[in-house]
């Protein structure tokens, strides 16, 4: 494993409402040398704001889809209202739409990494942030580059909202067959939270908020053959 030795920004505020993802992030932070007392967990935007008022937060790891709003609201709060312009803020999210990525970066996010990445990749991203760097998930950096140069390197015949990855298409077909997230995770031999991340991405791309709607849209688009 790569060298984890780097300056630790304390305390860390983790804005994440999924308990399983909280546990995962906590373990990754422990690997860097953080202690339990160094980590503040918030499951909502309002709680995150309260913690940032009570503690001198030096690093924020932020999800976007939250029960009471969007993590971008919290990033704006840190940067504009608390004037914390220098602390690193890394988005760890299942959302990979270009619009959402631009909004997060424009609000002041230092980095953006997808939850579907394995632990080593997230740790690499975290180390880059802690050592003063900025990191963008490789799968979305290409989209950003294409946006800036105004050229689509690999045009997709499908509209953006239906451009599902092979894994997302596979999971969508299993959803259509009636399998639950747990059953899909067992069949594909991947963690349930990974399945849930893919399902969130599917919802985002198909612009739906339920399995039934996702199946209907996919059928209309010819994705379920």
Explained architecture:
By secondary structure, the protein is an alpha/beta fold. Helices cover 50% and strands 11% of the residues. The strands form 2 sheets. It has a 5-stranded parallel β-sheet, sandwiched between helices. Strand 4 and strand 5 form a beta hairpin. About 6% of the residues have low confidence.
What attributes does this structure have?
Rossmann fold; Arc Repressor Mutant, subunit A; 2 domains; two-stranded antiparallel ribbon; 10 helices; 11% strand
What's the structural blueprint in terms of helices and strands?
Blueprint: E1 12-15, H1 19-32, E2 39-42, H2 45-54, E3 59-62, E4 65-66, E5 69-70, H3 71-81, E6 89-93, H4 98-107, E7 111-114, H5 119-130, H6 138-149, H7 166-176, H8 181-188, H9 192-206, H10 211-220
Parallel strand pairs: 1-2, 1-3, 3-6, 6-7
Antiparallel strand pairs: 4-5
Helix pairs in contact: 2-3, 7-9, 7-10, 8-9
End-to-end span in angstroms?
42 Å
Helix content: 40-55%
Based on the structure, what is the oligomeric state of the protein chains? single chain
- The average pLDDT value, as a whole number, equals 85
* CATH class bucket of the largest domain: Alpha Beta
Overall geometry comes to globular
Short description:
The protein is of the alpha/beta class and 225 residues long. It has ten helices and seven strands.
């Amino acid at each position: 494993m790569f060298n984890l030795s780097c300056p630790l920004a304390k305390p860390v505020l983790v804005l994440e409402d999924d308990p399983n993802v909280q546990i995962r992030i906590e373990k990754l932070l422990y690997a860097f040398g953080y202690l339990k007392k160094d980590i503040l967990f918030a499951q909502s935007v309002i709680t995150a704001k309260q913690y940032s008022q009570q503690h001198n937060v030096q690093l924020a790891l932020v999800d976007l889809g939250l029960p009471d709003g969007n993590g971008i609201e919290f990033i704006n709060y840190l940067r504009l209202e608390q004037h914390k312009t220098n602390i690193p803020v890394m988005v760890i999210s299942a959302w990979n739409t270009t619009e959402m990525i631009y909004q997060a970066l424009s609000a002041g996010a230092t980095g953006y990494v997808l939850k579907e990445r394995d632990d080593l990749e997230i740790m690499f991203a975290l180390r880059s942030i802690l050592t003063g760097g900025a990191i963008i998930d490789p799968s979305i950096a290409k989209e950003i580059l294409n946006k800036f140069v105004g050229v689509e390197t690999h045009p997709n015949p499908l509209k953006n909202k239906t451009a599902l990855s092979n894994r997302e298409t596979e999971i969508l077909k299993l959803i259509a067959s009636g399998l639950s997230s747990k059953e899909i995770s067992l069949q594909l031999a991947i963690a349930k939270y990974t399945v849930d991340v893919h399902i969130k991405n599917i919802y985002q791309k198909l612009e739906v908020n339920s399995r039934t709607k996702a199946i209907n849209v996919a059928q209309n688009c010819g994705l379920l053959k």
